[in-house]
Amino acid sequence: MAKKEQWTSKIGFILAAAGSAIGIGAIWKFPYMAGTNGGGVFFFLFIVFTILIGAPILLAEFVIGRRGQADAVTSYKKLAPRSAWHWIGYLGTLVAFIILSFYSVVGGWILSYLFRSLTGALTGKTQAGYSALFEDIISNPLEVIGAQFLFMVLTIMVVQGGVQKGIERASRFMMPALFIIFIVLVIRSLSLEGAMEGVRFLLMPDWDYLNGKTALVALGQAFFALSVGISIMVTYASYLSKTDSMPYSALSVSGLNIFISLLAGLVIFPAVFALGFQPDAGPGLVFVVLPAVFNEMAFGGFFLSIFLILLLFATLTSAFSILEICVAVLAKNNSQKRLSFSWLAGMLAFLVGIPSALSFGVLDHIRILDKSIFDFADFITSNFGMPIGALLISLFVSYRLKKQDVWSEIQSGSTMSVGLFNTWIFILRFIVPIAILLVFIS
């Protein structure tokens, strides 16, 4: 039997898991969600929900993965034999595959922008010019498919190397580089005249925005930013040593996710306010508004290139984890099959993602529930697949697994108190399901 791969160190696992969680959810989605939902109030609620809701589910996935010591499907089969619980793993794998199919499209957009940035083609335009450029890029069939293909090839080349030589090695480089680049950009953004208005917008809550809609949106952002609900972390935790502390890892990943979201806000909002733009520009904040903002800075082209490199790093680390869950289910810990299944799964995701890539151009006329193909794929995974998966995971750990077995797994490598453990179980049994149902209904 092939020897089970493991992370070489605790920090390697944390960086890889954090890379999976952060992605474009923290860097691309968080700023525009905060910008359209009151800034400081949204950020405050996001932090509360990440700690109280996201982290407990994350720890639950860690328990399943390390105790099962297998891929997302086999782990459930081992922990709950002769039952239907393993369908949680199949659901997570399917949802992950669909996410990768359109996620790679966004990765392609980033590559297109990065190429233009490095060649100087992103400088000297008006804000209307940047909006037109974005429309031109996403509607060009050859460019979007070619860039999507290149992004998927980069992802496959890392994942085919396995956990230690591929994902962990790449994450050990990409995540520290991401933090360093972010710090540089934060310093540059905060040095602008009038930047403090953006800082106040992000960090000083305006309680007039405190309402049910803002709370539900913040809960959804916290939930989806950690990539919980599709058993990605079940797969990652299956490579975790029994001597590593899972509660510490869950808190570290959650904390890093909050920290990166904070840095993203401190890069974007001070610059947006200092240069007279609006924070509620929506999804186009990164691709339309941000290039215009950097264009008005000294050395703006240089800093824009740095930001796009950072965004590419974050997107790739998430793509690694999404592809890994598919490869793990197919390869079943057989390292000889990893290479072929990495290319098989990756290329299938690329092919399935082509309609999403073309949904802003030649397939723009196709609508599903009044949504483009890209938006529909995002909708069914974010609003159905992930919430249902997370709900089932919380119920599986808190009701189906024996409490003593869960306690034993938690205690391996950590010293969580009985009181804290019982509080976590209570949150999984009651608080998390109610919160997920509220997000699902909304």
From TrEMBL:
<feature type="transmembrane region" description="Helical">
    <location>
        <begin position="420"/>
        <end position="441"/>
    </location>
</feature>
<feature type="transmembrane region" description="Helical">
    <location>
        <begin position="42"/>
        <end position="64"/>
    </location>
</feature>
<protein>
    <recommendedName>
        <fullName>Transporter</fullName>
    </recommendedName>
</protein>
<feature type="transmembrane region" description="Helical">
    <location>
        <begin position="297"/>
        <end position="330"/>
    </location>
</feature>
<feature type="transmembrane region" description="Helical">
    <location>
        <begin position="12"/>
        <end position="30"/>
    </location>
</feature>
<feature type="transmembrane region" description="Helical">
    <location>
        <begin position="380"/>
        <end position="399"/>
    </location>
</feature>
<feature type="transmembrane region" description="Helical">
    <location>
        <begin position="144"/>
        <end position="163"/>
    </location>
</feature>
<keyword id="KW-0472">Membrane</keyword>
<keyword id="KW-0769">Symport</keyword>
<keyword id="KW-0813">Transport</keyword>
<dbReference type="Pfam" id="PF00209">
    <property type="entry name" value="SNF"/>
</dbReference>
<dbReference type="InterPro" id="IPR037272">
    <property type="entry name" value="SNS_sf"/>
</dbReference>
<feature type="transmembrane region" description="Helical">
    <location>
        <begin position="216"/>
        <end position="239"/>
    </location>
</feature>
<comment type="similarity">
    <text>Belongs to the sodium:neurotransmitter symporter (SNF) (TC 2.A.22) family.</text>
</comment>
<feature type="transmembrane region" description="Helical">
    <location>
        <begin position="85"/>
        <end position="111"/>
    </location>
</feature>
<feature type="transmembrane region" description="Helical">
    <location>
        <begin position="251"/>
        <end position="277"/>
    </location>
</feature>
<dbReference type="InterPro" id="IPR047218">
    <property type="entry name" value="YocR/YhdH-like"/>
</dbReference>
<keyword id="KW-1133">Transmembrane helix</keyword>
<feature type="transmembrane region" description="Helical">
    <location>
        <begin position="342"/>
        <end position="360"/>
    </location>
</feature>
<feature type="transmembrane region" description="Helical">
    <location>
        <begin position="175"/>
        <end position="196"/>
    </location>
</feature>
<keyword id="KW-0812">Transmembrane</keyword>
<dbReference type="InterPro" id="IPR000175">
    <property type="entry name" value="Na/ntran_symport"/>
</dbReference>
